[in-house]
Each structure stands twice: as C-alpha cells, then as structure tokens.
Amino acid sequence: FRLKTAGIVAEYNPFHTGHAYQIARTRGLLGADCAVVAVMSGNWVQRGACAAADKWTRAGWALAGGADLVLELPTVWAASAAESFATGAVALLRACGVVDVLSFGSESGDPAALAAAAACLDSEAYRAGLSRFLDEGMPFAACRQAVVAALLGSERAKVLSRPNDNLGVEYLRAASALGWSPQVLAVPRQGAGHDAPRPAEGFASASILREWIAAGRRDLADCFLPAPWPEELEPTSLSHLERALLARVRSLSQAEWALLPDSGVEEGLPARLVQAGSRALSVEEFLTLAKTKRYSHARLRRLLLWAFLGLTAADRPAAPPYLRVLGFTPRGQELLRAMKGAASLSI
After folding, report:
1. Which band of pLDDT confidence, cut at 50, 70 and 90, is reported for residue 141?
2. pLDDT for 128
3. Which of 53, 211, 304, 310 sits 20 to 30 Å CA-CA off 221?
4. pTM value?
5. d(CA 98, CA 336)
6. Residue 241: CB atoms within 10 Å
7. CB 159 within 8 A of CB 150
8. What is the pLDDT of residue 296?
C-alpha cells in the first residue's frame, strides 16, 4: 500500500468532535490521501464497563468520521490497565503490515518527552527504584511517577500524570518491545480534557457526553457529536446488571479472585474483595468497601468486569491471535487487499 497509513487506538465511546479533529489533524500532517486504521475497543471498555453503544454502531461512526478501516481490540486487552491495553492495540497495528505512523492524542504534544519517559520506564534504574517506593505503601501510579521524577526530573515525569500522555507513553513502550519504529504523531488535545465535567473550546469529553446521553439530555450532547445521537438507540449501562454483578461477587472465593489479572494477591486484595462482596448492597458500595489508597476504582471495576464475564488472566494470550474487521470504506478495502500479503496475523 503506497499511501502513508496512520494507526489510531481508540474507544469512540462515543465518537465525538475531538476524535474527528484528531483524524483530520493526522491527515493534515501526513497528507489528505493518507489512510487511517483505527483499533477500537469492542463492547467492553477500559474503565471496566460496557460501551455506551455496540461496537458495530461505533465502528460506523468512526468510518463516517474519517477512519478507513476499523479493527476490534478484543476484550482481554480492551478492559485492561494502560500497559496491557496498549500492548494489545499496538500489536494489532503492527500486525497489519501496512501501518507506518502511530497517531494519538496528547496533552503535551511532545513526542520527545513521551519517548524519554517510555525509555525510563523500561530501564533497570526504574525497576530498582520502584520497589523502594512501593514498600512505602504509595499507590502504584504515584510510585511510578516519583521514580521517573527522580531519574528524569519532575517536569519530564509530568507526562505520566496526564491520561492521554500516559497512554502515549505506553504505546511507545509497546512499539519498542515489538521492535517496531513507526513515525509518531502526538496530536495536541484540544478543548476539554479527559473526563472534564464541562465542554471547552468547542470540545467535550466522552465521559460528560455519556452522562448527558444517559440522562436524556441528548440536546446537550448533540452539539459535540458529528451527527445527532440516534433517537432509537438506548445507551447501554452496567446499571441494568446490578443484581447479576452482585450475585457474581458474592459467589467468588479468594482463589477465584486471585485468578484475575492485577488481582493484588501479594497485597491480600482477594480477601478484601471477598469481604466487600459479602457486605455490599450495591455495586458502588462493593467498590467503595474494596477501595484502598493502593487500588483505584478503575482497577477494581476492571476486576469486577472480568469476574462477571468469567475471564481469568489465563484467557489473555501473550499477543493477539487475529485481526478482526469491524468495518471499512473503499480505501479501507484497498488496505485489506494489501494486508492479505503484508499482515502477520490472519484477518
């Protein structure tokens, strides 16, 4: 495939004007005829929840918004912490055999700073320093940033405190581990930040858009969506599964919790989860009872989701075994033809 081809990792939950801006900006930097491959979470997303709309609908939004080919990031990577999320997504982009640019949103827009942090996290000096901070009982994310600050300086370490920059760092680490060296585009994020509670400069965060849509305020959300939210499309939510989720956590033993990824066996988290499950009268209460300074709500929500879906750490292989197509445009069809000979995984 002779055109420049950019790979983007996303959830499009929902696809909004910020996502359309990133695709348009990528084309503005690479040329209007560049192709765009999006690796997108399926029906389950990184925050440990179901997506607001099914994967086929969201893939359609992405194609209408400028992507040419949408591939699915399977649940065992999609509903994972940043490192595993990035590992699965970047492996899929590399396996396409036609992607030569990695584009992602970034608060800093500074690829050099992100690359420095990525290299630091993979260094022996970092690994040596991390155990010292963990022994002090600090949350992992805080320990991680403290070690990088000690090695690179506090200014360089700030990228780890910003959600998009942090994911960008993990994308670069994953690419390095795979021996892949794509051109990197760190597209500066515009307007409202990740999870921002209100819009800014014509952009709104996906979280506030989901909140408005769920509350029936689609008139507010539609201003920040490329097309109005379909009237017939009811947003999905784990709130519909409250009783099933509670039944699941009440039935799990310590040994079963220990089989999940990031289960905190060494710190005794499975025992805490069993206690929380026996006492909680709601999912929110379960998360509150289980939460500590060390374990974030996001990590606990992912554990809950994996438990509900009946998945264990053993269900996540070392690398994705296939490329699953969710949708494509005519230019995406050209990409698929090229991938028949270039891809390292079956399509």
Report:
1. confident
2. 87
3. 304
4. 0.93
5. 9
6. 15
7. no
8. 83
Q: Scan for tokens 């585009």, then name that residue.
A: 185
d(CA 162, CA 335): 33
Position 5 pLDDT exceeds 90: yes
**216-234 pLDDT tens trace:** 999 999 999 999 999 899 9
